[in-house]
Protein backbone atom coordinates (compact mmCIF):
# COMPACT_ATOMS: atom_id res chain seq x y z
CA UNK A 1 0.00 0.00 0.00
CA UNK A 2 2.88 2.35 0.78
CA UNK A 3 4.12 2.17 -2.81
CA UNK A 4 0.68 3.24 -4.08
CA UNK A 5 0.57 6.19 -1.68
CA UNK A 6 4.09 7.25 -2.67
CA UNK A 7 3.21 6.99 -6.35
CA UNK A 8 0.08 9.12 -5.86
CA UNK A 9 1.81 11.76 -3.71
CA UNK A 10 4.75 11.90 -6.11
CA UNK A 11 2.60 12.35 -9.21
CA UNK A 12 0.01 14.69 -7.70
CA UNK A 13 2.10 16.97 -5.49
CA UNK A 14 5.86 16.57 -5.95
CA UNK A 15 5.88 16.41 -9.75
CA UNK A 16 2.68 18.33 -10.28
CA UNK A 17 1.66 18.44 -13.93
CA UNK A 18 1.09 22.20 -13.98
CA UNK A 19 3.48 23.66 -11.43
CA UNK A 20 6.45 21.31 -11.83
CA UNK A 21 6.14 20.07 -15.42
CA UNK A 22 4.45 23.19 -16.86
CA UNK A 23 1.86 21.27 -18.86
CA UNK A 24 -1.74 22.38 -19.46
CA UNK A 25 -0.98 26.07 -18.94
CA UNK A 26 -3.62 27.20 -21.46
CA UNK A 27 -6.47 25.74 -19.43
CA UNK A 28 -4.69 26.74 -16.22
CA UNK A 29 -4.98 30.42 -17.16
CA UNK A 30 -8.12 30.20 -19.30
CA UNK A 31 -10.56 28.16 -17.19
CA UNK A 32 -9.63 29.30 -13.70
CA UNK A 33 -11.57 32.52 -13.50
CA UNK A 34 -14.27 30.72 -11.51
CA UNK A 35 -14.11 27.76 -9.16
CA UNK A 36 -17.09 25.96 -10.68
CA UNK A 37 -15.60 25.94 -14.19
CA UNK A 38 -12.27 24.80 -12.72
CA UNK A 39 -14.03 21.90 -10.96
CA UNK A 40 -15.85 20.90 -14.15
CA UNK A 41 -12.73 21.04 -16.28
CA UNK A 42 -10.59 19.34 -13.63
CA UNK A 43 -13.03 16.46 -13.13
CA UNK A 44 -13.41 15.93 -16.88
CA UNK A 45 -9.63 16.00 -17.33
CA UNK A 46 -9.10 13.54 -14.48
CA UNK A 47 -11.47 11.06 -16.07
CA UNK A 48 -10.13 11.41 -19.61
CA UNK A 49 -6.45 11.29 -18.57
CA UNK A 50 -7.03 8.12 -16.55
CA UNK A 51 -9.00 6.37 -19.30
CA UNK A 52 -6.61 7.39 -22.09
CA UNK A 53 -3.66 6.37 -19.87
CA UNK A 54 -5.11 2.85 -19.73
CA UNK A 55 -5.58 2.75 -23.51
CA UNK A 56 -2.11 4.13 -24.15
CA UNK A 57 -0.51 1.59 -21.83
CA UNK A 58 -2.19 -1.28 -23.69
CA UNK A 59 -1.17 0.04 -27.11
CA UNK A 60 2.39 0.72 -25.98
CA UNK A 61 2.87 -2.76 -24.52
CA UNK A 62 1.04 -4.85 -27.08
CA UNK A 63 1.60 -2.92 -30.31
CA UNK A 64 4.13 -0.08 -30.36
CA UNK A 65 6.95 -1.65 -28.33
CA UNK A 66 6.83 -5.25 -29.65
CA UNK A 67 6.69 -4.16 -33.30
CA UNK A 68 9.20 -1.31 -33.01
CA UNK A 69 6.61 1.35 -33.84
CA UNK A 70 7.82 3.86 -31.26
CA UNK A 71 7.99 6.61 -33.90
CA UNK A 72 4.16 6.45 -34.11
CA UNK A 73 3.76 6.97 -30.36
CA UNK A 74 2.68 10.63 -30.36
CA UNK A 75 0.18 10.19 -33.19
CA UNK A 76 -1.23 7.03 -31.63
CA UNK A 77 -1.60 8.64 -28.22
CA UNK A 78 -3.38 11.66 -29.70
CA UNK A 79 -5.82 9.29 -31.40
CA UNK A 80 -6.39 7.44 -28.13
CA UNK A 81 -7.06 10.73 -26.31
CA UNK A 82 -9.52 11.85 -28.98
CA UNK A 83 -11.21 8.44 -28.80
CA UNK A 84 -11.41 8.65 -24.99
CA UNK A 85 -13.04 12.08 -25.22
CA UNK A 86 -15.54 10.82 -27.80
CA UNK A 87 -16.21 7.72 -25.69
CA UNK A 88 -16.89 9.82 -22.60
CA UNK A 89 -19.13 12.16 -24.53
CA UNK A 90 -21.07 9.33 -26.17
CA UNK A 91 -21.57 7.55 -22.86
CA UNK A 92 -22.86 10.70 -21.16
CA UNK A 93 -25.08 11.60 -24.08
CA UNK A 94 -26.64 8.13 -24.05
CA UNK A 95 -26.88 7.34 -20.35
CA UNK A 96 -27.26 10.77 -18.78
CA UNK A 97 -28.27 13.56 -21.17
CA UNK A 98 -28.79 15.93 -18.24
CA UNK A 99 -25.21 15.53 -17.04
CA UNK A 100 -24.01 15.87 -20.63
CA UNK A 101 -25.89 19.16 -20.98
CA UNK A 102 -24.37 20.43 -17.76
CA UNK A 103 -20.76 19.26 -18.12
CA UNK A 104 -20.35 18.42 -21.82
CA UNK A 105 -18.91 21.84 -22.64
CA UNK A 106 -15.55 20.93 -21.07
CA UNK A 107 -14.99 17.71 -23.00
CA UNK A 108 -13.94 19.10 -26.40
CA UNK A 109 -11.35 21.33 -24.71
CA UNK A 110 -9.56 18.30 -23.30
CA UNK A 111 -8.59 17.02 -26.73
CA UNK A 112 -6.34 20.04 -27.18
CA UNK A 113 -4.99 19.99 -23.63
CA UNK A 114 -1.28 19.18 -23.70
CA UNK A 115 -1.40 17.91 -20.09
CA UNK A 116 -3.29 14.84 -21.30
CA UNK A 117 -0.70 13.93 -23.93
CA UNK A 118 2.12 14.88 -21.56
CA UNK A 119 0.94 12.49 -18.85
CA UNK A 120 0.50 9.67 -21.38
CA UNK A 121 4.06 10.18 -22.66
CA UNK A 122 5.36 10.23 -19.06
CA UNK A 123 3.75 6.84 -18.51
CA UNK A 124 5.95 5.37 -21.23
CA UNK A 125 9.08 6.87 -19.68
CA UNK A 126 8.12 5.43 -16.30
CA UNK A 127 7.94 1.82 -17.58
CA UNK A 128 5.10 1.08 -15.17
CA UNK A 129 2.85 -1.98 -15.01
CA UNK A 130 -0.83 -1.56 -15.85
CA UNK A 131 -2.15 -0.64 -12.43
CA UNK A 132 0.78 1.61 -11.53
CA UNK A 133 0.39 3.30 -14.87
CA UNK A 134 -3.34 3.87 -14.29
CA UNK A 135 -2.70 5.16 -10.77
CA UNK A 136 0.04 7.47 -12.04
CA UNK A 137 -2.34 8.90 -14.67
CA UNK A 138 -5.07 9.29 -12.06
CA UNK A 139 -2.77 10.94 -9.52
CA UNK A 140 -1.25 13.30 -12.10
CA UNK A 141 -4.68 14.43 -13.20
CA UNK A 142 -5.78 14.74 -9.58
CA UNK A 143 -2.82 17.09 -9.03
CA UNK A 144 -3.87 19.02 -12.13
CA UNK A 145 -7.44 19.38 -10.81
CA UNK A 146 -6.23 20.36 -7.34
CA UNK A 147 -4.06 23.17 -8.70
CA UNK A 148 -6.84 24.34 -11.03
CA UNK A 149 -9.32 24.63 -8.16
CA UNK A 150 -6.80 26.25 -5.79
CA UNK A 151 -5.79 28.77 -8.42
CA UNK A 152 -9.42 29.51 -9.32
CA UNK A 153 -10.15 30.19 -5.64
CA UNK A 154 -7.16 32.54 -5.45
CA UNK A 155 -8.21 34.35 -8.62
CA UNK A 156 -11.76 34.81 -7.33
CA UNK A 157 -10.29 36.49 -4.24
CA UNK A 158 -7.80 38.56 -6.25
CA UNK A 159 -10.67 39.75 -8.47
CA UNK A 160 -12.17 41.44 -5.41
CA UNK A 161 -8.87 42.98 -4.31
CA UNK A 162 -7.68 46.46 -5.18
CA UNK A 163 -4.92 45.53 -7.63
CA UNK A 164 -2.84 48.32 -9.24
CA UNK A 165 -4.10 48.91 -12.79
CA UNK A 166 -0.85 47.74 -14.40
CA UNK A 167 -1.13 44.37 -12.71
CA UNK A 168 -4.84 43.81 -13.20
CA UNK A 169 -5.90 40.70 -15.10
CA UNK A 170 -3.35 38.17 -16.40
CA UNK A 171 -0.25 39.85 -14.80
CA UNK A 172 -1.51 39.38 -11.23
CA UNK A 173 -2.68 35.92 -12.33
CA UNK A 174 0.88 34.98 -13.30
CA UNK A 175 2.28 36.41 -10.05
CA UNK A 176 -0.28 34.39 -8.09
CA UNK A 177 0.62 31.28 -10.11
CA UNK A 178 4.31 31.77 -9.34
CA UNK A 179 3.59 32.03 -5.61
CA UNK A 180 1.50 28.87 -5.82
CA UNK A 181 4.38 27.15 -7.64
CA UNK A 182 6.75 28.23 -4.86
CA UNK A 183 4.37 26.75 -2.29
CA UNK A 184 4.29 23.47 -4.20
CA UNK A 185 8.11 23.41 -4.30
CA UNK A 186 7.85 22.63 -0.60
CA UNK A 187 6.63 19.16 -1.52
CA UNK A 188 9.87 18.37 -3.33
CA UNK A 189 11.50 17.77 0.04
CA UNK A 190 9.27 14.76 0.57
CA UNK A 191 11.50 12.70 -1.67
CA UNK A 192 8.73 10.67 -3.25
CA UNK A 193 9.46 9.22 -6.66
CA UNK B 1 -37.87 25.77 -12.93
CA UNK B 2 -38.11 27.60 -9.63
CA UNK B 3 -37.52 26.08 -6.24
CA UNK B 4 -40.47 24.10 -5.00
CA UNK B 5 -42.15 25.15 -1.76
CA UNK B 6 -39.97 24.18 1.16
CA UNK B 7 -36.77 24.51 -0.88
CA UNK B 8 -34.66 27.58 -0.23
CA UNK B 9 -33.80 29.67 -3.26
CA UNK B 10 -30.00 29.77 -3.59
CA UNK B 11 -28.40 33.12 -2.98
CA UNK B 12 -27.30 35.03 -6.07
CA UNK B 13 -23.61 34.48 -5.32
CA UNK B 14 -24.12 30.71 -5.25
CA UNK B 15 -25.61 30.61 -8.73
CA UNK B 16 -23.64 29.79 -11.84
CA UNK B 17 -25.11 31.97 -14.55
CA UNK B 18 -25.16 31.45 -18.28
CA UNK B 19 -26.77 33.01 -21.32
CA UNK B 20 -29.21 31.02 -23.43
CA UNK B 21 -31.24 31.83 -26.50
CA UNK B 22 -34.85 30.80 -27.04
CA UNK B 23 -34.94 28.61 -30.14
CA UNK B 24 -38.48 27.26 -30.02
CA UNK B 25 -41.76 27.65 -28.14
CA UNK B 26 -43.80 24.49 -27.73
CA UNK B 27 -47.08 24.84 -25.90
CA UNK B 28 -46.28 26.02 -22.39
CA UNK B 29 -42.56 25.29 -22.69
CA UNK B 30 -39.59 26.90 -24.38
CA UNK B 31 -36.46 25.28 -25.80
CA UNK B 32 -33.28 27.10 -24.93
CA UNK B 33 -29.83 26.76 -26.47
CA UNK B 34 -26.90 27.76 -24.25
CA UNK B 35 -24.44 30.25 -25.66
CA UNK B 36 -20.71 29.70 -25.54
CA UNK B 37 -19.40 30.31 -22.05
CA UNK B 38 -16.18 31.81 -20.77
CA UNK B 39 -14.84 28.30 -20.21
CA UNK B 40 -14.00 27.99 -23.88
CA UNK B 41 -14.67 31.52 -25.11
CA UNK B 42 -11.17 32.70 -24.26
CA UNK B 43 -9.26 29.62 -25.22
CA UNK B 44 -7.25 28.86 -28.30
CA UNK B 45 -9.18 25.61 -28.54
CA UNK B 46 -12.32 27.58 -29.44
CA UNK B 47 -11.80 27.17 -33.16
CA UNK B 48 -10.96 23.51 -32.76
CA UNK B 49 -13.89 22.43 -30.62
CA UNK B 50 -16.42 23.79 -33.11
CA UNK B 51 -18.77 25.22 -30.49
CA UNK B 52 -20.47 27.82 -32.65
CA UNK B 53 -24.13 28.88 -32.48
CA UNK B 54 -26.34 26.23 -34.05
CA UNK B 55 -23.57 23.64 -34.09
CA UNK B 56 -24.50 20.03 -33.34
CA UNK B 57 -22.76 20.28 -29.96
CA UNK B 58 -24.94 23.16 -28.83
CA UNK B 59 -28.06 21.59 -30.34
CA UNK B 60 -27.39 18.53 -28.21
CA UNK B 61 -27.24 20.74 -25.11
CA UNK B 62 -30.67 22.33 -25.67
CA UNK B 63 -32.97 22.18 -22.69
CA UNK B 64 -36.59 22.87 -21.90
CA UNK B 65 -38.11 25.25 -19.37
CA UNK B 66 -41.70 26.20 -18.57
CA UNK B 67 -42.61 29.40 -20.42
CA UNK B 68 -43.85 31.28 -17.36
CA UNK B 69 -42.40 34.54 -18.64
CA UNK B 70 -43.91 34.51 -22.14
CA UNK B 71 -40.56 34.28 -23.89
CA UNK B 72 -40.38 34.59 -27.67
CA UNK B 73 -38.09 32.84 -30.15
CA UNK B 74 -34.80 34.70 -30.49
CA UNK B 75 -34.88 36.26 -27.02
CA UNK B 76 -31.76 35.92 -24.89
CA UNK B 77 -32.18 35.08 -21.25
CA UNK B 78 -29.97 34.56 -18.23
CA UNK B 79 -30.33 31.11 -16.73
CA UNK B 80 -28.67 29.79 -13.61
CA UNK B 81 -27.95 26.65 -11.70
CA UNK B 82 -26.79 26.35 -8.09
CA UNK B 83 -22.99 26.10 -7.79
CA UNK B 84 -23.45 23.11 -5.52
CA UNK B 85 -25.29 21.27 -8.30
CA UNK B 86 -22.36 21.71 -10.68
CA UNK B 87 -19.96 20.32 -8.06
CA UNK B 88 -22.30 17.43 -7.31
CA UNK B 89 -22.78 16.68 -11.01
CA UNK B 90 -19.03 16.70 -11.69
CA UNK B 91 -18.33 14.38 -8.77
CA UNK B 92 -21.16 12.08 -9.79
CA UNK B 93 -20.28 11.95 -13.46
CA UNK B 94 -16.53 11.48 -13.12
CA UNK B 95 -15.81 10.59 -9.50
CA UNK B 96 -17.95 7.46 -9.15
CA UNK B 97 -16.67 5.61 -12.27
CA UNK B 98 -13.08 6.58 -11.47
CA UNK B 99 -13.23 5.38 -7.89
CA UNK B 100 -14.95 2.11 -8.78
CA UNK B 101 -12.53 1.29 -11.59
CA UNK B 102 -9.46 2.10 -9.50
CA UNK B 103 -10.79 0.16 -6.54
CA UNK B 104 -11.51 -2.89 -8.73
CA UNK B 105 -8.09 -2.75 -10.41
CA UNK B 106 -6.10 -2.27 -7.19
CA UNK B 107 -8.06 -5.03 -5.44
CA UNK B 108 -7.31 -7.54 -8.20
CA UNK B 109 -3.66 -6.53 -8.30
CA UNK B 110 -3.33 -6.90 -4.52
CA UNK B 111 -4.91 -10.35 -4.80
CA UNK B 112 -2.04 -11.35 -7.07
CA UNK B 113 -3.60 -10.66 -10.46
CA UNK B 114 -1.41 -9.72 -13.41
CA UNK B 115 -1.70 -6.78 -15.77
CA UNK B 116 -4.41 -8.36 -17.91
CA UNK B 117 -6.56 -9.34 -14.94
CA UNK B 118 -6.16 -5.86 -13.45
CA UNK B 119 -7.12 -4.31 -16.79
CA UNK B 120 -10.21 -6.50 -17.03
CA UNK B 121 -11.21 -5.63 -13.45
CA UNK B 122 -10.66 -1.94 -14.15
CA UNK B 123 -12.91 -2.08 -17.21
CA UNK B 124 -15.54 -3.98 -15.24
CA UNK B 125 -15.35 -1.33 -12.49
CA UNK B 126 -15.77 1.37 -15.14
CA UNK B 127 -18.86 -0.36 -16.55
CA UNK B 128 -20.39 -0.70 -13.07
CA UNK B 129 -19.49 2.94 -12.35
CA UNK B 130 -21.29 4.11 -15.49
CA UNK B 131 -24.38 2.17 -14.38
CA UNK B 132 -24.24 3.78 -10.92
CA UNK B 133 -23.84 7.22 -12.51
CA UNK B 134 -26.92 6.60 -14.61
CA UNK B 135 -29.00 5.76 -11.54
CA UNK B 136 -27.60 8.68 -9.52
CA UNK B 137 -28.12 11.13 -12.39
CA UNK B 138 -31.73 10.01 -12.73
CA UNK B 139 -32.23 10.68 -9.01
CA UNK B 140 -30.66 14.15 -9.26
CA UNK B 141 -32.66 14.96 -12.40
CA UNK B 142 -35.85 13.76 -10.72
CA UNK B 143 -35.23 16.24 -7.91
CA UNK B 144 -34.68 18.98 -10.51
CA UNK B 145 -31.16 19.64 -9.21
CA UNK B 146 -29.57 19.56 -12.65
CA UNK B 147 -32.12 21.79 -14.38
CA UNK B 148 -31.22 25.44 -14.95
CA UNK B 149 -33.60 28.08 -13.61
CA UNK B 150 -34.78 31.16 -15.50
CA UNK B 151 -33.23 34.21 -13.87
CA UNK B 152 -34.00 37.20 -16.10
CA UNK B 153 -34.17 38.49 -19.64
CA UNK B 154 -30.95 39.90 -21.09
CA UNK B 155 -31.35 43.64 -21.22
CA UNK B 156 -29.40 46.37 -22.95
CA UNK B 157 -27.92 47.22 -19.54
CA UNK B 158 -26.59 43.66 -19.18
CA UNK B 159 -24.97 43.89 -22.60
CA UNK B 160 -23.40 47.29 -21.87
CA UNK B 161 -22.04 46.15 -18.53
CA UNK B 162 -20.73 42.91 -19.98
CA UNK B 163 -23.12 40.93 -17.80
CA UNK B 164 -24.55 39.00 -20.73
CA UNK B 165 -21.58 36.67 -20.68
CA UNK B 166 -21.22 34.11 -17.95
| Number of strand segments of chain A | 0
Q: Give the H and E element order of chain A.
A: HHHHHHHHH
Helix content of chain A: over 70%
How far apart, in Å, are the first and last alpha carbons of chain A? 15 Å
Order of strands in the sheet with most strands of chain B: 3-2-1-4-5
Strand content of chain A: under 5%
Radius of gyration of CA atoms of chain B, rounded to a whole number: 20 Å
SSE succession of chain B: EEHHHEEHHEH
Q: DSSP helix count of chain B?
A: 6
User: What is the number of E strands of chain B?
Assistant: 5
Fold and architecture overview:
- The complex is a heterodimer of chains A (193) and B (166).
- Chain A is built from nine helices and no strands.
- With 193 residues, chain A is mainly alpha-helical.
- Chain A has one domain (10-183).
- In chain A, 48% of the residues are buried.
- The mean pLDDT of chain A is 87.
- Chain B has 166 residues and is α+β, with helices and mostly antiparallel strands.
- Chain B has one domain (12-161).
- The model of chain B is unreliable at 1-10 and 38-50 (pLDDT under 50).
- At the A-B interface, helix 2, helix 3, helix 4, helix 5 and helix 6 of A face helix 1, helix 4 and helix 5 of B.
Write the layout of secondary structure elements.
The complex is a heterodimer of chains A (about 190) and B (about 170).
Chain A: H1 2-14, H2 25-30, H3 35-64, H4 73-95, H5 97-103, H6 107-111, H7 114-126, H8 130-160, H9 170-185
Helix pairs in contact in A: 1-8, 3-4, 3-7, 3-8, 4-5, 4-7, 7-8, 8-9
Chain B: E1 15-26, E2 29-34, H1 38-41, H2 46-49, H3 56-60, E3 63-66, E4 76-82, H4 83-110, H5 115-142, E5 149-153, H6 156-161
Antiparallel strand pairs in B: 1-2, 1-4, 2-3, 4-5
Helix pairs in contact in B: 4-5
Amino acid sequence: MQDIILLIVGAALVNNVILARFLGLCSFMGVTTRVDTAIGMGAACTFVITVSGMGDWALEHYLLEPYGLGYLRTVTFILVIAAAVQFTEAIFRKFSPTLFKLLGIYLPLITTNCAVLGVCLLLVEGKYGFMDSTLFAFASSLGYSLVMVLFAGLRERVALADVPRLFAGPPIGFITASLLALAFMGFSGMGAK
Amino acid sequence: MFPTPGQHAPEARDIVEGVARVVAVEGGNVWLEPEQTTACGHCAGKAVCGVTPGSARLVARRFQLPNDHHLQVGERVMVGIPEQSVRRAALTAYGIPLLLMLAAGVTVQKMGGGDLQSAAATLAGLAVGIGVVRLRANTLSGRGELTPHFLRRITAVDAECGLDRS
